[in-house]
Amino acid sequence: MSEPSIFFSDVNERQGSFLRRTFVVGGLTALGVTALTVRLAQLQVVQAQEYATLASQNQFNFRLVPPPRGRILDRNGVVIAGNRPSFRVLVVRDETKDLDQTLDLLGQLLPDTVDRRRAIIRDVNAAPRFAPVPVKSDLTWEEFAKVNIYANELPGVMADMNEARFYPYGGSFAHVIGYVAKVSDRDIAAVRDRGEEVPQLLYNPGFRIGRSGVERALDEDLRGVEGGNRVEVDARGRVVAEDVGGSRPATPGKDVVLTLDADIQNRALEVFGEEAGSCVVMDVRNGDILAMVSAPSFDPNLFVSGVPGPIYRAWADYERRPLTDKAINGVFAPGSTFKPVTGLAALIRGANPDRRIHCGGAFYLGRRFACHATHGSQDMREAIKNSCNVYFMTLAVEVGPDAIADVARTMGFGQTFDLGIGNQNAGLVPDREWRRQNPVRGDGRWYPGETPSYGIGQGALTVNALQLAVYTSRLANGRKAVQPRLIKSIGGEEQSVPGGDRDLPYSPEMLAVLRDGMNRVTDVGGTGFRNSQLGLGAVRMAGKTGTAQTRNYGSGARRSNVWSQKDHNLFIAYAPIDNPRYAVSVIVQHGGLGGGTAGAPRAREVMRVALLKDPEIRQRIEQSGFAETEDPGSHEANALGAAEPAQVDARPAPAASTGPRPYLSEPPE
């Protein structure tokens, strides 16, 4: 069968068909070449710079570099929070062929990463592209070398050296300085809730944010400004070179100088031994806080890389509450340390300090309020010396709760202070208005029977150690309502005293009466005499003891072997007596003894360090012919008898109750 053929009846018809096809194909070809030429011209001429930039961006990556965190120093330049070199191993998800296989191989080199595998995978998946995620920090030199030896078999794994936050004094400054920890989703959400753009630095897996204390309050100052490394990558995103000229160095955070003194702070924690409590030391002339300690403490270094679960649970469950800052957050009844407030309230209303009131061992107002001794006839100075309940209960009933509350607030109670850090508990200074707003079983009346306990620092009244130190400083100063200061400078800029120092609205002569009584407390026969002697020649310390009940004794025994049922022991003091410079407050939580037995010896040891570090006072001691051989910065000697040098305990105490306590008496000093 022959093939079909197309026959043209005319030669011109055949030629015309060929020309039409040629024209169509040629036109389409010309159109395509023209379009291609135009596009090439657009890419190579018009958009040449734009695509050159995109190509460069594909070739180079800019990797964020967290800045070194600013240091925190004490008043003498001693670093109390700094940075140290740390070897670490990192994983870059986008450079690994198989993340699970990589972690399996890494687990053979670093076995402790196996237990954290799930957390590592979560962090890697949450990280931005090409962002290195720390898998383990603080590698030993052997671990660091081992990872580098097997680097070729671990795609996406690298080992480097960075700076990690470090607290050289461990628990001594844990509560006041705080600690840093990883950024959480709540931190990101908090920034967004404020309507602010989230800094890219917060998404960096290796970045740490201030979580409490000064670290949190001044986080933005300490944080610094991030830098970046410009690196050349191949088609798979692997680093092949670094462009040093295109990199930007990180700017370190600002250094923060505190008013604290490392030697005094360390000694203040040491003297507590295994006991729980707090201690604050202030300069009565300008309000500088030289020590602010809460015991027991914890090691903030563990928070930098993450506290193991069992350790954190031990801290949280321990009844002495090491995680609670008892210096500014824990509140307690002040006991007899409050009696000068009652005395000042009476003096303001015309009471004569020489008036004598008889103490027969008890005060009667509807029921019996016991005194810890039978003191006989005494004036105000003697009543402070002997810590007589009857004397101050009598004054309290005469002036009433509102007058006492007014003086208490003026002297520093019932308020928080602008220290630059939060988490302060204002405590409670009750009065009739407070009772109306906080009725007991629907009854908003202030009953006369509440006033005697109030006058001796019991009942609903609660204070913290910082307030006690402020109160003592104002008593010792005699003229100024000194304000406490913690932040000395930020980035070299001196910080002024918040609120300034106002004049006290009381006659210096009235305050002199109270100081005279406190001077006698540490003299022969005073409640704090035996354990408050400094042993520094003519330089002596004045003070006031206090013992606060934690339960109603009823008809039972005052002493208890149950820690949570023991009394709180307090002591406030200032020195030198003739020219006060330093004030100290000590609270021993559930110490079970008395302010003169548990609080005074601890205050004495801390005060000795403060005085011996003062060049003028040390010169005065030496000129008086008294030889002091102990180094004020040394913690080897411990003159507290049963109290051993403190360890950084991994355990803390129940929060003090702030409710009313209708006790019938105050335990003995």
TrEMBL record:
Keywords: Carboxypeptidase, Cell inner membrane, Cell membrane, Cell shape, Cell wall biogenesis/degradation, Hydrolase, Membrane, Peptidoglycan synthesis, Protease, Transmembrane, Transmembrane helix
Gene Ontology cellular component list: plasma membrane
Membrane topology note: Single-pass membrane protein
Top-level taxonomy: Bacteria, Pseudomonadati, Pseudomonadota, Alphaproteobacteria, Caulobacterales
Lineage top rank: taxon: Bacteria
Region (Disordered): 623-669
Gene Ontology MF term list: penicillin binding; peptidoglycan L,D-transpeptidase activity; serine-type D-Ala-D-Ala carboxypeptidase activity
Main location: membrane
Biological processes, Gene Ontology terms: cell wall organization; peptidoglycan biosynthetic process; proteolysis; regulation of cell shape
Organism: Brevundimonas subvibrioides
Domain Penicillin-binding protein dimerisation: 65-242
Compartments in which it is found: Cell membrane; Membrane
InterPro entries the record matches: Beta-lactam/transpept (IPR050515), Beta-lactam/transpept-like (IPR012338), PBP_dimer (IPR005311), PBP_dimer_sf (IPR036138), PCN-bd_Tpept (IPR001460), Penicillin-binding_protein_2 (IPR017790)
Protein name per UniProt: Penicillin-binding protein 2
Chain ranges of the Penicillin-binding protein transpeptidase domain: 277-607
Pfam family name, one: Transpeptidase
Presence of keyword Transmembrane helix: yes
